[in-house]
Amino acid sequence: MKILIADDDPQILRALGITLTAHGYEVAVAHDGRQAISEAAAQHPDLIVLDLGMPHLTGIDVIVAVRGWSAVPILVVSGRADSADKVDALDAGADDYVTKPFAIDELLARIRALTRRTPAQSDEPVVRFGDITVDLAAHQVLRAPDAGSSAEPAIVRLTPTEWKMLEVLVRSPRRLVTRTTLLTEVWGPQYTNDTGYLRLYVSQLRKKLEPDPAHPRYLLTESGMGYRFVPDEEPAPN
Amino acid sequence: MKILIADDDPQILRALGITLTAHGYEVAVAHDGRQAISEAAAQHPDLIVLDLGMPHLTGIDVIVAVRGWSAVPILVVSGRADSADKVDALDAGADDYVTKPFAIDELLARIRALTRRTPAQSDEPVVRFGDITVDLAAHQVLRAPDAGSSAEPAIVRLTPTEWKMLEVLVRSPRRLVTRTTLLTEVWGPQYTNDTGYLRLYVSQLRKKLEPDPAHPRYLLTESGMGYRFVPDEEPAPN
DNA sequence: GCTCACCGTCAGGATGCCGTGAGGACCGGC
DNA sequence: GCCGGTCCTCACGGCATCCTGACGGTGAGC
């Protein structure tokens, strides 16, 4: 769940960012109206927390611009408590309006209320290699059936640890992933020196994903350093 | 566009009724919590303006009850400005919270904001799997009769908790639903660690929905991660 | 050819998670 | 007050997952 915070006060920006991150949200920021619009377009946030009093563009302009192409929930935060301001913002397309100063608990509750109506729709990518399809959003791995057969794609069952490991590798295609980063990402920050699980789980992943586990083609090992996920470049029709 | 106003103060009730009628809304009224629930069920309003401080039932109870079967927008009006009250109401399922005294213009703008958002999601689908039909809009689950029999579809009775859980799963077909998201969606944002209810309700849902509860086909469990609803694709030959 | 470090794989046991039944607490209806 | 329904707690058997230890293979350096 990604939230875009648009505010020209760096202090508020920072405080809000910390709070939202602590509550499990992914956070993007913008310092003025123009940036708010471009970030909203680039990041596809699931919600926008928008300060009305920003330079370059008024908050109303930002709302109208974003509403031009997106139905993302917009929560306006403003120092002005005048009802005319609220009416203007809400009628421009905002979904909620909170006046400063506000209780952070209330803001969080309002964020939950708004995101409750439009759940998820994350645009996580789908990674393909060989006859394997990794769907990051659905947490699912599928194996395409043999060519010519019209059977269903088969579900590849992964254990939680196997999945986390595959996720880390697949999110950094073609890049070397150090043994220590793999350990900390999958098992936690306190795990730093390998005692053998890495080799085990790489082995099991290869057994489940590689066409020929003995000669890996996608999950490569860099001796002494770590592992590397390499998707096949061109389709390789041969 | 029909709005249900629930308030025990006849003066406010009357003033709001006149204003809303003048703005083209159809108006229904309730004088206490119990009546609010029954009117909401009978009238199917497009929005509910709910006073928190009513006799017979607290406003929170009304929200929870209505949310048990309906997603109608709920705008809470209350004399209490304490942020804890706001958080409780919003987390119970309210969509907005306005403190008295309020400007009538602002209330109207918030009503417009809430009603603007809902028609977009009026495409409540009907989900089918096996001999089960889940009607999200009607909040009903039906089991088709045996083939050849000309009997009526039987209604499958679900408790409120079972329904919420099924709804969350069915709304994300094929996607893994984490244990924590299930908990927060069904029991509320403050519930985050399982103490066993999840397993219990999944078990009961399977007992009511699965053709063979011992070998689930639609409500699958991903050990260590969560659950997944998988509708059947095409018949899947061989 | 030898050593050594590193990697891949297998099997077995410990741990934690899952499904399910029984029973108590609570609440609204009669 | 009694009763039916719903929700939750607790306990137990079964199983998936995880980790450990051991063994063999490979390649680099000498």
UniProtKB/TrEMBL annotation, chains A, B:
Residue ranges flagged as DNA-binding region:
124-231
What highest taxon heads this organism's lineage? Answer: Bacteria
Q: Where is the OmpR/PhoB-type domain?
A: 124-231
List the InterPro entries: CheY-like_superfamily, OmpR/PhoB-type_DNA-bd, Sig_transdc_resp-reg_C-effctor, Sig_transdc_resp-reg_receiver, WalR-like, WH-like_DNA-bd_sf
- Response regulatory domain: which residues? 2-115
The alphabetical list of record keywords is: DNA-binding, Phosphoprotein
List residues, modification 4-aspartylphosphate.
Answer: D51
User: Mind telling me which SUPFAM superfamilies this protein's record contains?
Assistant: C-terminal effector domain of the bipartite response regulators, CheY-like
Pfam families from the UniProt entry: Response_reg (PF00072), Trans_reg_C (PF00486)
Q: Kindly provide the name given to this protein in its UniProt entry.
A: Response regulator
Organism, per UniProt? Answer: Leifsonia stereocauli
